[in-house]
Structures are given as structure tokens and as C-alpha cells.
């Protein structure tokens, strides 16, 4: 039986993590013929994130080394699924749509699906600065990698076959992990697609360090493309 790993990084997300776990439609996924594991990668939370996640039936893997990329690398290495589905632990991503994503992945024999938060974005969900940052980073990706197929280079919800992970050279340990994964999936020639999703407002405190993360992601793109020494 094929297995799905729903992998969710969490840093101090005690307000949202239970809702996020409950949103995964386990019985529907099982009816489609898959086994399911939900893994919360606790990135050194100082609140009750891990405890609440366990109470709600998730496997909790602790990655004490902080960083969004570090959390995902630990999650991928310790998960057992043939197909990986990711998203934040902050109620922003539609985990209830997993059956739809799985069907598209299987029917179209895809390797990697990115989700697009921006095309159907509701007005109050994201600040204009955040929107601009997303547009800016996606535009740089399209300029640096001709044919880059994604509108939303920063989306944190991906659906992909686990076997491709070992072929992707994703070095980032922090927030640039998201864009680097997409660049690698595209560059290595995997069969990719992007699906529009309904993105929602965040529950709990923002973890992103706005401008600092935007600058870091921008620098990361140029370093990745041109391999600048010293970074
Ligand atoms: N920023 C950040 N998030 C982490 C880290 N480790 C785990 N996470 C989790 O990774 C997910 C992404 O972080 P978010 O702060 O939601 O980043 P974002 O989605 O770009 O920003 P928001 O629009 O505020 O949701 C969340 O579930 C975090 O709890 C880390 O070191 N830094
Ligand atoms: Mg988020």
C-alpha cells in the first residue's frame, strides 16, 4: 500500500497546530487507497506545540536546530511515505484539499506539484509588502531560470514523490529552502505543475522576519545562479 507523509514544520504554533492536523482528511485519503502519516517537525518550540500535536495523533519529530529548511530536511529524512505533502502549521494552507492534489499527481503522472497562493488571493489575507515581495522573488526566479514554471516561488505547500528528493541539490537551511526546492525540481527536469489554492490568514504570531528574509531570499537566488564565493 502506498503511503502519504504529511510533513508540517512548526515553531511555536500552539494556537494553530491542532486545527491544522484535524484538517487532514485521513479517512478520505485512506479510501483512495493510501496509508497516511502526519509528522509535525518541532523546530525547538518553547510552547506546547509538540504536546498538542501528539495529543492530536501526529508523530512529532524534534529538530532542535532552528531553520525552516533544517526542519524540512529532518522531516523528509525521517518520514516513510512514497508521496510527501507539506504546509505550514499556521492554518494558512488547505490541507482538506489533499485528495484533489493526490488525484492530479497520479492522473497526470507528475513528480512535483507547487501550489499558488497568489492568483486567487483574497484582499485581507496578505499585506501589500508581502505580496510585493512574493511577486519580486518570483520575477527574479523567472529571469534567472528561463522557463521557470511557477508563479508562487515562496509557497510552502508542495506535493511530490519522495524518490525525487535525493536527486535535488537543496542546500538551504532557512527560508530560501522553499524557492530552492522548486528551482531544483524544475532544473532537474521533473514533471512539474502548479495548482491555485485558497490561502487563508495566519493564526498565531508571524515567524517570518519580513524584509530580512526577503533580502536573504533575493541574495540566495543570485548566489544559487552565479555561485558567488563567500556565501
Ligand atoms: N520562520 C520560521 N518558520 C519556521 C522555522 N521552523 C519551523 N517553522 C515553521 O515553518 C512554517 C513557515 O513559517 P511562517 O512563519 O509561517 O512563514 P510564512 O508562511 O512565510 O509567513 P506567514 O505569512 O507569517 O505565515 C511555520 O509553520 C513555522 O512554524 C524557523 O526557523 N523559522
Ligand atoms: Mg506561514
SS summary, helix count: 8
**Helix and strand sequence:** EHHEHEHEHEHEHEH
Q: What is the approximate shape?
A: globular
Main sheet: strand order: 3-2-1-4-6-5-7
Q: CATH superfamily assignment? A: Spore Coat Polysaccharide Biosynthesis Protein SpsA, Chain A
CATH architecture: Alpha-Beta Complex
Give the N-terminus to C-terminus distance in angstroms. 43 Å
- The level 1 CATH classification is Alpha Beta
Total beta strand runs? 7
Number of folding domains? 1
Largest sheet: 7 strands, mixed
Low-confidence stretches: none
Please tell me the overall pLDDT: 96
β-strand percent reads 15-25%
The portion of residues assigned to helices is: 25-40%
Q: Indicate the structural class.
A: alpha/beta
Q: Which small-molecule ligands are present, each listed once?
A: guanosine-5'-triphosphate, magnesium ion
* Computed Rg: 17 Å
Could you say what the CATH topology is called? Spore Coat Polysaccharide Biosynthesis Protein SpsA, Chain A
Q: What does this molecule look like?
A:
It is a single chain. By secondary structure, the chain is an alpha/beta fold. The protein has a single domain (2-226), classed as Spore Coat Polysaccharide Biosynthesis Protein SpsA, Chain A. Helix content is 37%, strand content 17%. It contains 8 helices and 7 strands. A 7-stranded mixed β-sheet has the order 3-2-1-4-6-5-7, sandwiched between helices. Strand 2, helix 3 (49-55) and strand 3 (59-62) form a beta-alpha-beta unit. Helix 6 (128-144) runs parallel beside helix 8. The protein starts with a strand and ends in a 5-residue tail after the last helix. 41% of the residues are buried. The model has no long low-confidence stretch (mean pLDDT 96). It binds guanosine-5'-triphosphate and magnesium ion (MG). Guanosine-5'-triphosphate is lined by residues 9-11, 13, 43, 66-68, 71, 88-90, 92, 156, 202, 206-208.
Amino acid at each position: 500500500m502506498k503511503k502519504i507523509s504529511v510533513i508540517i514544520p512548526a515553531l511555536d504554533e500552539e494556537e494553530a497546530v491542532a486545527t491544522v492536523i484535524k484538517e487532514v482528511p485521513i479517512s478520505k485519503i485512506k479510501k483512495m487507497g493510501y496509508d497516511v502519516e502526519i509528522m509535525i517537525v518541532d523546530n525547538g518550540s518553547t510552547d506546547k506545540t509538540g504536546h498538542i500535536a501528539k495529543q492530536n495523533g501526529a508523530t512529532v519529530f524534534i529538530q532542535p536546530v532552528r531553520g525552516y529548511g533544517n526542519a524540512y530536511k529532518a522531516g523528509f529524512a525521517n518520514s516513510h511515505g512514497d508521496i510527501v505533502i507539506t504546509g505550514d502549521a499556521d492554518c494558512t494552507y488547505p490541507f482538506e484539499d489533499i485528495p484533489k492534489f493526490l488525484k492530479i499527481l497520479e492522473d497526470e503522472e507528475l513528480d512535483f506539484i507547487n501550489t499558488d497562493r497568489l492568483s486567487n488571493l483574497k484582499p485581507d489575507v496578505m499585506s501589500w509588502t508581502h505580496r510585493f515581495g512574493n511577486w519580486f522573488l518570483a520575477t527574479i526566479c523567472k529571469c534567472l531560470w528561463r522557463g521557470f514554471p511557477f508563479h508562487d516561488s515562496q509557497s510552502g505547500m508542495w506535493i511530490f514523490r519522495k524518490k525525487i528528493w535525493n536527486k535535488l541539490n537543496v542546500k538551504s537551511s532557512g527560508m530560501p529552502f522553499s524557492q530552492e526546492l522548486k528551482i531544483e525540481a524544475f532544473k532537474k527536469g521533473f514533471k512539474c505543475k502548479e495548482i491555485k489554492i485558497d490561502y487563508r490568514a495566519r493564526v498565531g504570531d508571524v515567524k517570518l522576519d519580513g524584509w530580512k528574509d526577503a533580502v536573504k531570499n533575493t541574495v540566495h537566488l543570485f548566489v544559487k545562479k552565479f555561485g558567488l564565493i563567500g556565501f
